[in-house]
Amino acid sequence: MIEPHATAQPGTATAPAQPGTAKAPPPWSGQGPARLPVSTATGRFLVLAGVFICAACGLVYELELVALASYLIGDSVTQASVVLSVMVFAMGLGSLVAKRLRGRAAAGFGAVEALLALVGGCSAMALYAVFAWTGDWGGAWQGGSSYVLVAFSLAIGLLIGAEVPLLMELIQRIRRQDAGGAVADLFAADYVGALAGGLAFPFLLLPLLGQLTATLITGTVNAIAGGALVLGLFRQDLSRRARWLLVVANLVVLALLASAAVLVDDFERAARHAVYGKDVRVAMHTDVQEVVLTGGTDGRPLDLYLDGRLRVSGSDERRYHEALVHPAMNGPHARVLVLGGGDGLAVREVLRHGGVRQVDVVELDTRLVELARTDRALSELNGHVYGDPRVRVVAADAFGWLRRAPRGAYDVMVSDLPDPGITSSTKLYSQEFYGLARGVLAGGGRLVVHAGPVESRPRAFWTVDATVRAAGLRTVPYAVAGRDPAAASRSRAPHDWGFVLASRARPELRTPPGTPYVPSLRAGVRAAERTRLTGLPPSTLVHPRYAD
């Protein structure tokens, strides 16, 4: 080992360098300093600006995959975990692979960015297309959408990971600095860019452009930034042939992304028809969810889909809402609280009972309520309940609203909320939530909960029952079977519905005199009991159990 500062010993001659001996190569790829068209300081600034933009685009791709997969496949915790873990793993592989490209860092970075722009920009459309045209209505990890999700996560992660060593090479060629300083500069720009992308996606891109267009625009920005950085700043590093290849590649990518952006509305309509059929009348994205109405005219049954799931089928909704509401109305019912149920159908059943003086509807999605008020078919189906002076709508999250609600204010509480297996609904099926509900009920008040399907998801159903009991209420679980097979086959809708009736004293499961017949309530209790699972722990905010 040669000590760099060793001094010659007395009487010892230092050997002169031999003619023709090469100097030690620089610590980067063997290329000399870059020949830039701008000053060194400006060059470094432009490279770091490129890092910022590329990092922002990369995070938008990640968030887009998580958001779209959560909507299409369900269980947002699982989707986020899969996307992020696969992507981080792939980034490590991409960094290792990109080491071989350091000798042609400029050309390699340009090619990586063009490919990343194309793959990332088209990822949302590809995932949505597979979901729409393959009929992937399975569980969280069944069907083509799940495989496409993993494939895109892997591809995008590989390309993002390949950026890091190539950018490090480029920034070192502008001005040589110690590795720690270069890494600090590079990662600072990268993390700040990720922050910008992470904030832009939910607050700017998603509400203004929607998922498909937002991703295409992100891919366009990615291609322009990567191409401009290489062709503008490092063009002297490229051969004439490489420059033309990179120009053509970027123009092709931009043309494909632009064509997709022009056709995105037609694509979305075609995909929506593939998912919901050709009878779509209303399709809108609210601040909370996607709302789609089909049918309701010319004698065709009306169907309401929320985030791709059949929530109301006009052919059988009356059976569901009668089973949900009427058993809970057996007793005092002057003051009724409906949680969710913005479609107004549960309220319709509540108002069929004499003696109801007040109905408060707590619904987060005000645009759904407005649709239920103004759409002719839906308002006829719900009996124009929002024109009744006894009905008051509160635009609020049910959990937060219950924390502020006066104690003992309601005789009946109807929890007409989405399935507990949907991650966004988990807190509305927690022990803490039912503890708040218990406090809002009057002394003899009754709570009824839509607890999801019984036959296909008995564990989730009986976890709801265990959770309600853990909040200090006594329960009677029951099920109603018979969803229309044709409606169920068109969606992920279950073939039965499960409910939990609860109160401080053990409730009696029957309907008040003079109300519509609810088919076989006693048989529904027996049907639920046949699936009973014992010893299940309650679901809490810090330990949700429905995905176990």
What does this structure look like?
The protein is α/β, with parallel strands linked by helices. It has two domains: 40-276, Growth Hormone, Chain: A (Up-down Bundle), CATH 1.20.1250; 316-529, Rossmann fold (3-Layer(aba) Sandwich). Helix content is 52%, strand content 12%. The protein contains 15 helices and eleven strands. A seven-stranded mixed β-sheet has the order 7-6-5-8-9-11-10. The chain is elongated.
Q: How do the helices and strands line up, and which of them pair or pack?
A:
Layout: H1 40-72, H2 76-98, H3 105-134, H4 144-174, H5 179-233, H6 240-276, E1 280-285, E2 290-294, E3 303-306, E4 309-313, H7 317-325, E5 335-340, H8 345-350, E6 358-362, H9 366-374, H10 376-381, E7 391-394, H11 398-404, E8 410-416, H12 431-440, E9 441-450, H13 458-470, E10 474-481, H14 485-489, E11 496-503, H15 521-529
Parallel strand pairs: 5-6, 5-8, 6-7, 8-9
Antiparallel strand pairs: 1-2, 2-3, 3-4, 9-11, 10-11
Transmembrane segments: 45-73, 79-98, 110-134, 146-171, 183-206, 212-232, 244-264
Keywords: Cell membrane, Membrane, Polyamine biosynthesis, Spermidine biosynthesis, Transferase, Transmembrane, Transmembrane helix
Binding site for spermidine: 321, 343
Largest sheet: 7 strands, mixed
Helix count from the secondary structure assignment: 15
Count of distinct strands: 11
SSE ordering = HHHHHHEEEEHEHEHHEHEHEHEHEH
Strand order of the largest sheet: 7-6-5-8-9-11-10
What fold name goes in the CATH topology slot of the largest domain? Growth Hormone, Chain: A
General form = elongated
Structural class designation: alpha/beta
CATH architecture descriptor text of the largest domain = Up-down Bundle
Taking the alpha carbons of the first and last residues, their distance comes to 59 Å
Strand-residue proportion: 5-15%
Provide the number of structural domains. 2
Given as residue ranges, the uncertain stretches (5+ residues, pLDDT < 50) are 1-30, 137-143, 487-491
Estimate the helix proportion, in percent: 40-55%
Q: Could you tell me the mean pLDDT?
A: 85
Which CATH class of the largest domain?
Answer: Mainly Alpha
Q: From the alpha-carbon coordinates, what is the Rg to the nearest angstrom?
A: 31 Å
